[in-house]
């Protein structure tokens, strides 16, 4: 309701439709008599005190008739919309249930009908069904159905490709049950939005049919019929068309605005509750770290409802260095990466005391400058290489685009560079691979192609967010080697995110351990055995090695990490820690133990 009040167009649409519905209920009760009373002395008059919008050819009051006609007009529009949506949705879902060939035939028929002008289709159906309100309603319903069927089919086909539908099929869930339980609930929202707008179209279509004499027939009348009757006098008393024309336009506008409001409300309902609130962080006053390709100080990310997945995270990455960010699922690693790349999803907001990339302070830049800097200096490699590459474009073309867009290269230069970069990430026959589409590549090749894409310009920082999680162990090794070579060759810094402490310790120079949105320990990778924080020690301890007793269960960390909205004031790990004391009710700061080792724990002070 609050959102509706803030959206004037939506509010207007809601008020118009609410008034129309109210009129449809009460107008015939109040003005029926005035609307049907004939007056031979006041035939086809213009506006006057007794008839504010004039009279028709039989001397009946046009304002009263317009108000009374609201019920029939809205009622018929509702019926036509009902016919159109129900038959459209049924038609659109049929191909999911029918055998493949029959399904294709249905879709071909729908495509044919969509191509046919809607009003002609309505008229044709109305003529076949018989002149009058019934025929017109059926005609408009039939005219609305193909667009709904097309929409339903397209959305159903999209949802049908999802993994959860594949899982349901694998479990042998019957087709009709997949449709009603898994498909339709997921496409209901756009269908409802379209229904509101279809109501407007139905109303306009029905009014047009009645105006042409093919809809409601005398003595019944809707707004279109009133327009039809008034039209004969329009040159003598133009005001006679004002009331019905205004009513049709207002209702049409009302339904369109209402559809829009539904769409906006649906978009907002997907967001977390509450308004976005930016974290307040005081800017850093000390000198920036020299030679750092990335310096992040006190980074925080906040979502509405007190969800703060990243709290006071400080990270520094130097040239040619790979820093590993480890932590269990939900500790805020990806969100930290997203905040550095300025791609935190709305309604999340970020704040930091300092954010410098390649020696440039991002907070001091305009949006355009920041985009340019990030586009040319930051390369991001995500977990799923399939979604990082556009399936409709060839690999070489996509890589080349990066160089033309941010590096100012010509097309020929960019293409040559794309092949060279593919070669650099150890892709065999790079010339040939550049011409292929992403689906023609294996997972490991795709991930290497994404790394090559990051290397198209001269990145200062590479952020790799679990780049090998989806790959098997041998391919994983290849990709990690390529990443190390890329860092060594370009002297860029890299932030490598993973939940696998074994992989991180092998690849990285330094490791930052994250727990419940904060960094709890930072140390050189080769000093992992000297880790002091109980969480890091538990992580290291849960790694099996050659001496691990294979007959016993693997070591685990009991308990669970708190959700971002439930992190307590004290040490977030206290619940799961074996060294917890009264002091842990106060959060320990991340303190430097040696030049390269920092820990946030009371126990190790
Ligand atoms: N759009 C969002 N709205 C609200 N909270 C979110 C949103 N996206 C993520 N979060 C929260 O942020 C927290 C951190 O998520 P993040 O993806 O950074 O974790 P992660 O450490 O990378 O985990 P994983 O290893 O599973 O990817 C999660 O607990 C999640 O609940």
UniProtKB/TrEMBL annotation:
Pfam families reported for this sequence: ABC_tran (PF00005), BPD_transp_1 (PF00528), oligo_HPY (PF08352), OppC_N (PF12911)
Transmembrane segments: 12-31, 72-94, 106-131, 191-214, 234-258
Domain of life: Bacteria
Domain ABC transmembrane type-1 as annotated: residue spans: 70-259
Cell location: Cell membrane; Membrane
Keyword set includes tRNA-binding: no
Membrane topology of the entry: Multi-pass membrane protein; Peripheral membrane protein
Key word Transmembrane present: yes
Major location (coarse): membrane
Keyword list, A-Z: ATP-binding, Cell membrane, Membrane, Nucleotide-binding, Transmembrane, Transmembrane helix, Transport
Domain ABC transporter: 294-541
NCBIfam families with a match to the protein in the record: oligo_HPY (TIGR01727)
Family to which the UniProt record says this protein belongs: Belongs to the ABC transporter superfamily.
Descriptive protein name: Dipeptide/oligopeptide/nickel ABC transporter permease/ATP-binding protein
The organism of origin for this protein: Streptomyces drozdowiczii
Lineage, highest ranks first: Bacteria, Bacillati, Actinomycetota, Actinomycetes, Kitasatosporales
